[in-house]
Each structure stands twice: as structure tokens, then as C-alpha cells.
Amino acid sequence: MVQLFKRHQSTLAVDLYQDTIYLSPPLSPSEPGHDEILRGTVTLNLASSRRIARIRVQLKGICSILSDYNYSTLTTLQKDLEIELGDEKLAAGEHSWNWTFIVPSSTACQERSMYGTVRHTVKAWCEGSGSWGTISAFPRPVWLVGSPCPAGELPSGLEVTVKDNSGEVGPIALQLSSPHLTVASLCFLNITFESPPNMEILSVGAYVIQSFAIHYDDPSVGVVYPPRQKKILFYADQTTPLAASTDELLDRENVGRGASIPASFESRHRRPKALVRLENGVPWSYSRIIRLLDDDHLRPTTLEHTETPLRVKHSLVTEVRYRMKGSKAEKTLECSTKVTIASCCCLQDSLLLPGYVKQRPADEPVRSFHRRCLCNRSLQDLVSEDGAALCGADSRDSSPAPPPPKLMASSNDLRLSKQRSGGGRSSASARRISRELHSAGRASGSGNASGSGAAVSAAR
């Protein structure tokens, strides 16, 4: 009975042809950028004939800075479009118009962290003539994702090999590799002591240093650098069993993913037991498959020449704690390299349609495009697809030292440092070696660690 007296209202809706746009900023400000196109339609459903003055569509990006220093809201992008109808009388029913926006490649991409957010929406308004007024459409979100590679290509992988002869512990070979270095992706780590002395390895760990830079419009505030965040990827000590084969290495228990620091890492009151004891001249190798954290904890690296108030950069650090035989002093061997971590939505798997089946399971919800990212894929699926190739089952099982591959990384700085600590308290660095690796370009990311592009300096 109520439906008989219910009055139908006119509505306005915005539809997007694609709600996710990939942006690749230019390598330098002087180079032209490859801007992307955002297309869609606006649909007006009239309950009765009306005179319409114009249709307005707006694409807007808002950055909300949530830092402790100052709260601020900035407009990162705004584009407006008007469709003039000149008080044309439209009949009752559905009317649609197409619209198009050009999105610059240097636009601030989607961001959400404890220091702020960057969001983009498309809104629409219909302005009527006379007393009819204006109706608006529900805002539609647009996801702008930064891609470190040109359109249609996958993110480049990480392939770093470092060899050093530190004198005290003998020749060391460190390898970091990943098929595609993105948020929530897999990474392989291998460290080899080729001819060690009598020593004890106390622990092996890896973590990501995540640094933010907040740019304010207010000159009195300028740029604010919050404290760096240390994201633990894995930590192995005497409580962690060593993998004896590739099959054990691919087990879920041997794949690290952002585990909390064990109590033995925080407490140094007692002398820690050794993870392994090395004999003089006997090679020893440690391998580990790591899964990077998801986008709730690890944000994508901000690409160069992206105009955004919130910038993020990362360094991947590998740390080995050890002590020499007969000594109580603990020492730390640390390797740090700058890396570009792409978004979890940049892989080709996010762009493919799901497989066709006769009947879709009733309990399987249809996820939106931006949710079909690498973070939502199970660890077992990633290990099954890339695990064996990542750890080199055919070659690394029989060879204690991995072969030096070509450097395929966007890392521009690699630091290998050795620190002393007595009684659990760190003292000044005893020896530090700095290596700067200049890659040939961000798109290809190729270079040579042992070539003329590496500058080595030592300080005692």
C-alpha cells in the first residue's frame, strides 16, 4: 500500500570504465611523461521531464596529513568538466553522457599510512533550471597506482650479489633476489662464509627500514621526517631449525614473514647460544625465503618525480651476529641496500580475468579490482609458483656459494658494515665499507657490482 503513494525521485550516477590507473612518472622533469586516460559515463535517471542546465563532473585528489606536528589537507589533483545543455528539456527516463580526464603521470598515487592518506574520487552534479535545483551522484573512488616500469611491463626484479673479504671472517658472498620486488612478494636470501675461521654464528636476520618524508605547504614547517620504521622480515637464532634441503626451505615454517622479534633478541643478560659453530676453512651457507609484509604494514616506495606530499623510501638490511672462538664479544655484520618496492597491484596476475567455471561457488564473493592484489594471495600459492625457481633448487643444493648474477635492482647504495659490541652493548664501528652502485636506468635496473661504477671507501 505504501508503494502506491511512494514518489519516484530522479537520480544521478557515475560509472568508470576502469577504476585503477597505473602511472609511470618520467625519469627526469625535462622528459615528457606518458599521461593516462580516465574514462567513464554519467547517467541521469529522470522521474519526469525536466529542463537541465548543465552536468558537472569532477576528478579530485585529497591528501590528508595526520602527522603530530600539524594536521593539513591538500589538494593534489583537481580536474573539472562541464556539459552545457542550455536548459534543454529532457524526457523522463535514462540519459547518459561520456566523459574523459587526462591524468598526469606525476600525480600523487594512492597512499594510506599512519602519517596521512591520498585518495581520489570522481563526483558529478546535475543542475536543473528553475526551482528543480541540483542533484549529486555518490562519489566513486579511483585508485592511482605508481608503476616503476613502462606501461604493459612487469616490475623489474631484485638481483644483488656482494662479495667481500673482511679479513677477520674471511670471504663472504651475499645474494638477494626476487622475481618481482613488490609489496607482499617473495625474496630469496643467501649468505655464504667461504673460508671462515673458528667462530659462532649467533643469529641471522633481515628487516626493511621504511622512511617517510612529509612535505607541508607552510614554509614555517617545511619537510618533516618522522622516525624510521624497522619492519622485521625474519630472525633466526638457536631456537630456529636450519633447513637441510630445498624442500625444507620451501616449507611454511621456514618462510619468514614479518614475525615479531624473539625474546632472545631483546634479552642479552645471558650469553646466547650459537645458531651454528663454524670450523676453520669449512664453508657454510645459510638460505632463507622471505615474504615481504602486506600493504597494511609496508607501503610502496614513492617513485622519483612523483608530486606528492607523502614520500616513502626503503632499505633492505641483512644482519649477522657472531663471535670468534674463545671470545665473549659479540659482533655484527650488516649489509644495507636501497630498494624500490613496487605496489602489490603491479603484477600481471592482478590484470587477468579469473578462470571460467560452469558454476561460481556461492560462498566466493566477487572482489573489486583493487582488492585482487598480491596481499590477498596465500603464501602457499606464491611458494608453489615461484619458490623452487627463486631458491634455485637445481644449482644451490650442490654448490655452497651461489654464482654471481647480473645486478637487476634499482638500488643505488649498498653498505657493508662490521660493528663490535661488548656485553650486548654496541660500540663504535670497527670497520665500514661503502659501495655505491649506479644502475643504468630505473626501467631496466641493470648494472654491475664489480664494474667501474662501484666506488669503495673504508674507514677505521
SSE layout:
Blueprint lengths: L1 H4 L5 E6 L3 E4 L12 E11 L3 E16 L6 E19 L2 E11 L7 E3 L2 E13 L5 E3 L3 E7 L11 E8 L5 E8 L7 E8 L5 E17 L7 E2 L4 E8 L9 H4 L5 E2 L6 H4 L9 E3 L5 E8 L18 E15 L5 E10 L39 H13 L1 H4 L10 E2 L5 E9 L2 E12 L9 E2 L7 E5 L1
Parallel strand pairs: 2-10, 17-19
Antiparallel strand pairs: 1-3, 3-6, 4-5, 4-8, 7-8, 8-9, 8-10, 11-12, 12-13, 13-19, 14-15, 14-16, 14-18, 14-20, 20-21, 21-23, 22-25, 23-24, 24-26
InterPro entries: Arrestin-like_C, Ig_E-set
Protein name: Arrestin-like N-terminal domain-containing protein
Radius of gyration: 27 Å
Task: Give average pLDDT, whole number.
Answer: 77
Biggest sheet overview: 9 strands, antiparallel
**Unreliable runs, pLDDT <50, ≥5 residues?**
257-269, 393-415, 418-460
Percent in strands = over 45%
Helix proportion range: under 10%
Q: Helix tally?
A: 5
- Rough shape? elongated
Number of domains: 2
Structural class label = mainly beta
State the separation between the terminal residues, measured CA to CA: 89 Å
Number of strands: 26
Region (Disordered): 391-460
Biased composition (Low complexity): 440-460
Protein name: Arrestin-like N-terminal domain-containing protein
